[in-house]
Amino acid sequence: MAASIDAEYPIGIIPAMQDNLIYLLPGTNSCCAVIDPGEAEMVLTLLEQAKLTLTHVLLTHGHSDHTGGVSLLKKKSGCSVLGSDLRRTPEINIVVQDDQLVDMCGFRIRVIAAPGHTSSSVCYYLEPDGGGKGAVFTGDTLFICGCGRLFECAAQQMFDSIKRLAALPDDTLLFPGHDYTVENMRFALTVEPNNMAIRRQLEVLNRDGSLAAIPSSMGFEKQTNPFLRTQSPDIRRTLNLADAPDEQVFAELRRRKDRF
Ligand SMILES: [Fe+2]
Questions:
Q1: CB 89, CB 37: distance < 8 Å
Q2: Is 144 inside a domain boundary?
Q3: What was the pLDDT predicted at 9?
Q4: What confidence tens digit (pLDDT) does each residue in 50-73 have?
Q5: What distance in angstroms lies between residue 140's CA and the mean position of ligand 1's atoms?
Q6: How far is the centre of ligand 1, averaged over its atoms, from the C-alpha of 61 (Å)?
Q7: Measured in angstroms, how far is the CA atom of residue 240 from the centroid of ligand 1?
Q8: pLDDT band at 197 (very low <50, low <70, confident <90, very high)
Q9: Partners of 112 in the beta sheet?
Q10: Which of 41, 53, 129, 175 is the residue whose CA sits 20 to 30 A from 260?
């Protein structure tokens, strides 16, 4: 039977370093994938505790806070390393491309090229199986209630990338590369103060801790994430961009967030 996201195959969330998030994806036959291991020690401990065999590492981009653990994990497990930035991460032995399908641990994963944060950033879409929910690992492209900084690309490229992600089904679970949710929501309220879905979720996170936001869903992001809400009249009014093209609203939001 193929693996799916349910109680039998939960996705492990490992907070690492200051605010990074590493994900553990256990599949069939005790095999396991890890997404963006910025460090190795906690991953190795958890693998041993759960008696899982690491077979694949998936990298969304080449920044060291997402790849710092790759070398040791590969050495200890002999796992395959999938990623797009061979220049920054020479441990990669499968260079992935847009729309590529990867079958591993009983899962089918589709690669989504997402230039914006870096020119070669990718996201990994775990396709739903048997009517279950899909999941997407977005690295530093789409955060909960935010998006990544533009280091190597123009705003238009990032905007196109997050629009592609937003086209995934609304029940798609969103697993971002950093725990920035509370700060992102505070920023979002500066441009859309009457968004009650954000206010309600902030209350929950203030009570239960920021990790309670993970995973989000694409449907919830469409209600709350300002970078996916460039058509909101409230946001446009705040930015004095009532009739501007969506891309211009996005770029202005990104500029304001950089200064926030
Ligand atoms: Fe990054």
A1: no
A2: yes
A3: 59
A4: 999 999 999 999 999 999 999 999
A5: 5
A6: 7
A7: 30
A8: very high
A9: 123
A10: 175
Domain that holds residue 183: 12-259
Residue 3 domain flag: no
**Pairing verdict, β 107-113 and 101-104:** antiparallel
How do residues 74-83 score in pLDDT, each as one tens digit? Answer: 999 999 999 9
Residues forming beta bridges with residue 21, ordered by sequence position: 15
- Reading phi first (left if > 0) and then psi (alpha if -120 to 50, else beta), residue 37 is in beta
Average pLDDT over residues 148-167: 97
Domain membership flag for residue 238: yes
Find the 69 Cα to ligand 1 centroid distance in Å: 15
Give the count of domains, the chain: 1
Region 118-145: mean pLDDT is 94
Q: What is the CATH number of the domain that holds 153?
A: 3.60.15.10
Tell me, in angstroms, the distance from the centre of ligand 1 to residue 234's CA: 30
**Element at 57 (helix H, strand E):** strand 53-58
